[in-house]
Design goal:
Elements lengths: L1 E5 L3 E8 L2 E4 L8 E2 L1 E5 L5 E2 H14 L10 E5 L1 H5 L7 E3 L2 E3 L1 H20 L5 E6 L7 H18 L3 E6 H7 L7 E8 L4 E8 L4 E9 L3 H13 L8 E3 L5 E3 L2 H4 L13 H11 L5 H15 L3 H14 L5 E8 L3 E8 H26 L8 E5 L6 H10 L4 E3 L5 H11 L5
Parallel strand pairs: 1-10, 10-11, 12-19, 19-20
Antiparallel strand pairs: 1-2, 2-3, 2-4, 5-6, 5-7, 8-9, 12-13, 13-14, 15-16, 17-18
Helix pairs in contact: 3-4, 5-13, 6-10, 6-11, 8-9, 11-12
Length: 418
Amino acid sequence: MYGIDFGTSNTVVTTREGGKARILDLGEGGVLPSLLHFEKEEAPSIGQAAIANYAAALERYRGSANLYSRFRFFQALKLALKDPSFSGTRIFGELRGPVELAAIFFRELLRRIEAEIGRGSRSLVLGRPVVLSPDPAIDAVLQDRFRDAAILAGFDAVSFVPEPVAAAVSLLGSLRGTLLVFDFGGGTLDITVARLEAATIEILGNEGMDLGGYLLNEDISRDRITRHFGAGGSWRSMSGRWLPMPSWITSQVSSFYALPLGDIAKTRAMIKELLPDAKPADRQGLRALSEFLDRNLGFSLFARIDEAKIALSTEAAAAISFAIPPHLSFSEEVKREDFEGIAAPRVEAARLLVRKALAKAGVESGEVARVVRVGGSCRIPAFIRMLEEEFPGRVVEGEVFTSIASGLLAAAERGLAV
């Protein structure tokens, strides 16, 4: 049996040995980026191999047109799987739905698992966000997508444990008392309030929302980057009126997970129509946007923004540099205070979710002995300060990337699967 924390940004796999969780290396040190690369005449690749193949394809096809017909690169597969409006995308002319895309990722993951430890039981405990949809019926349908993807990949049976519950179970034996797990990852913020004793755990309440590192990257892009691609510009209609640039076009450089899934041909055709009627100052940005789409550069820009965001957790400022010769070259300095201003509404949304979780659990903030931060976004200083304001002196960092995976199988054994 395996436990898989299939995260928006990273995936971690565990098995049980001697009653304890063992994190599998899978050739990438235990934390594998949740990325998928396709190229004609090649087998799909995941993780760091996907990044390497993407970079090689960019170089190999430099100067070629319409690179989407040559290779495809998908990030945040989990967000696509949990998006009820996404029904599929064409890859080299063949329609692939969200379940099939995720199954390709899981299939390669299973191959790596069995290459490392041999074939055993293919039963799976899969982590899931607390909330996939506020509508219980849609939530059930979306959970079935995850199950179907795993079964299609070759797993025999699938059960689910809420991700922050698994993180709380992983703390058994190390902490006691009333705890709040603040699981802040790439796609969601999930919270569990639990009471731990020496060998027992009682889940008092869970809450979750769509708030994670991807959303923060999109906020940065909208604030600092999209203007370089024509956002905020205008174009002259047939009646002679100046109209704002359609936001759905320039959002192609901020909605990073949606970009590889969208109708690229439609966007490129609209850019071509708008170019002659755009203000001269906006035309270079539109040309850059067309090249951005043609050259499949979404992940390249995302990586620059993500690197800057991560650097701002320890540095006072960071630069986002990007170029699409000959149309575009910029270097945007973002100071930590700038980023915190951009992120301020998200911090307050997180604060309200924490309070909602406490109210649901029937626990006062003063009763919480420890707040344990996990997930790749939990190191952002503005969110740490918010937690310290709510729980002074009681906020600690857990195993940021592996706590969920470490607790999945133990949580299922304790009857905490959903």
